[in-house]
């Protein structure tokens, strides 16, 4: 299954429209993937029509909803953006509720929970986000956003701690762009600046969950991993997006390494210089491994090798043996023990399985999202823009969706 996933991923991200650069096996399965992609596109269009004509129902929550989603699978920075927004609202004493499906073992949920211990951030997990939100509203209560939240957003961090409330003031919908059963007041679309839209085909032939025309629904677009691509490519990406929506606000983000933790003791933080001049093996099972590896390379190791597994893959005994074999090979080549570096998602998926790699040191690279400069836009500008959008959109709600 792992091999098949890798073959399909290579097809999805080939830039050759005739697929001539692929293996014979891959070219043989392209027609099957093409048929499946057409069926998926038809079902996608029918589903959207059912919601448009009211045959399927969208629920409206009593507090503002910010959706963070994407058009393509994996590596778009949704979870870091969700965490960024949750921290901001918590800092200004607006208690956020994150609604997430908890896909594939819940590694992203575990990471969000670990990052927000001791804060007012609440995390609701479940496929029916509206029902999950209703349960939290019943238990925690919710606030009048007009009377409280907009004022706090205006003062940003200048809010007295005594004004903190445990009542929910805003909902952040994780991976929400295709979740049509819940209305949203703002749609943030994340784009992987490195891989973009692959071969521009719908899944499973390509990586697109929706056509690029869906960008017309976005209120804000964010090009993630913008530090890993050229200015020319960024400008071209902006041009393509503005062909769909001319006035679309576009921002850049990157992941900035903060520190390491060790798998055997996550309470101790290690400086980034820990891997300076060391031999490193990057092991990852995430949507886009390339930005992770490039980020590690910037920290100054003498050699970086990598083992890549499919997104959300659970490491098995055979995987640990494969990793160990690569480590032994690196040790024989360079004469000293290499260091394994994994992502936070890989750690949170199963913290104990990586301990089996002892005596080799296994470090977890902890990162944070940073808004990059695009023209003169900064993090402060980004937050101000979000505040203004929330004020205008929430105050002019006019649809007939049921309010929970």
TrEMBL record:
One of its GO terms (cellular component) is membrane. Pathway: Glycolipid biosynthesis; lipid IV(A) biosynthesis; lipid IV(A) from (3R)-3-hydroxytetradecanoyl-[acyl-carrier-protein] and UDP-N-acetyl-alpha-D-glucosamine: step 6/6. GO terms for biological process: lipid A biosynthetic process. It is an enzyme of class 2 (transferase). One of its GO terms (molecular function) is ATP binding. The keyword Coiled coil does not apply. Pfam families: LpxK. Keywords: ATP-binding, Kinase, Lipid A biosynthesis, Lipid biosynthesis, Lipid metabolism, Nucleotide-binding, Transferase. Its EC number is 2.7.1.130. The keyword Transport does not apply. HAMAP family: LpxK. This is tetraacyldisaccharide 4'-kinase. It comes from Stephania japonica.
